[in-house]
Amino acid sequence: MQENYKKLLTYAYNIVGSYEDARDLVQDVLEKYIALDKTSIRHESNFLIKSTINHAINFKTRQSKKEVFGEWLPEPVSFENADTRLIKDETASYTMLVLFEHLNPKERATFILKEGFNYSHAEIAELLEISTENSRQLLSRANKQLKGGKFLPQKQHSSIHTETLGKYQAALAQGNIRELEHLLVSDIKLNADGGTKVQVVKGTEMGKTATATLLVYVQQQFLLDKEFTFQFFNHQPAICFWENNKLHNCHILQLDNDGLIQEIYSVVDPEKLKNITKLSRM
């Protein structure tokens, strides 16, 4: 049941984008399963997977996103955290979880099952109770929306991540806008999630100079002299800013093959940050 739990949690998290909600969904599925008459259930694992996936799809369909400051971003997870009970190689990258928000729940589930778990269209059809042709159509629509994005990021040497994070932190601390510009691609995108409590700028593509200027302003106004740690969330490098063991902000980066920053996901939402605070610092 322990291995089943990790797999079910991984399915649910990929679909809903929230570790806390995924945990609640899986718990609900397991509690209902315990109370069931199991005489007609031939394969426990398949039954639980199907129940979890459909429960997660229904949850995502019903879920009305809160009005938040900035843009709603998924809850990041760290595989270095012993409390994170996800299967690392079957958990989507952070960038992909953000892109999943442009899909409807069934498109999202179909893409995850096909690209993340290598299910056939026949298996997806059985799980989602649709036709194989419908499964193919859902995957095609998802791929068009995701523009060729991959479930897991292309593997990069950890030295690239460390080097870019070091230069990024140094440029922020020094307020060096020009050095920051050298670390960013020309069409850099900045996305920020302040939840319902913290006002942030809505995510947009502003260009290198405007993005670097905004980052330095935020650093000097809100993050100056705060302790920082380098982390990895959902396979991507990140820098976290702390004060008195309280996490104030987390920047998750998407890098290109040259180590330049393509996207910055700034998580400021206190509800999301409280779970990250449990991390063992690297």
From TrEMBL:
<dbReference type="GO" id="GO:0016987">
    <property type="term" value="F:sigma factor activity"/>
</dbReference>
<dbReference type="InterPro" id="IPR052704">
    <property type="entry name" value="ECF_Sigma-70_Domain"/>
</dbReference>
<dbReference type="GO" id="GO:0003677">
    <property type="term" value="F:DNA binding"/>
</dbReference>
<dbReference type="InterPro" id="IPR007627">
    <property type="entry name" value="RNA_pol_sigma70_r2"/>
</dbReference>
<protein>
    <submittedName>
        <fullName>RNA polymerase subunit sigma-24</fullName>
    </submittedName>
</protein>
<feature type="domain" description="RNA polymerase sigma-70 region 2">
    <location>
        <begin position="2"/>
        <end position="65"/>
    </location>
</feature>
<dbReference type="GO" id="GO:0006352">
    <property type="term" value="P:DNA-templated transcription initiation"/>
</dbReference>
<dbReference type="InterPro" id="IPR014284">
    <property type="entry name" value="RNA_pol_sigma-70_dom"/>
</dbReference>
<dbReference type="InterPro" id="IPR013324">
    <property type="entry name" value="RNA_pol_sigma_r3/r4-like"/>
</dbReference>
<dbReference type="InterPro" id="IPR013325">
    <property type="entry name" value="RNA_pol_sigma_r2"/>
</dbReference>
<feature type="domain" description="RNA polymerase sigma factor 70 region 4 type 2">
    <location>
        <begin position="99"/>
        <end position="146"/>
    </location>
</feature>
<dbReference type="InterPro" id="IPR036388">
    <property type="entry name" value="WH-like_DNA-bd_sf"/>
</dbReference>
<dbReference type="Pfam" id="PF08281">
    <property type="entry name" value="Sigma70_r4_2"/>
</dbReference>
<dbReference type="Pfam" id="PF04542">
    <property type="entry name" value="Sigma70_r2"/>
</dbReference>
<dbReference type="InterPro" id="IPR013249">
    <property type="entry name" value="RNA_pol_sigma70_r4_t2"/>
</dbReference>
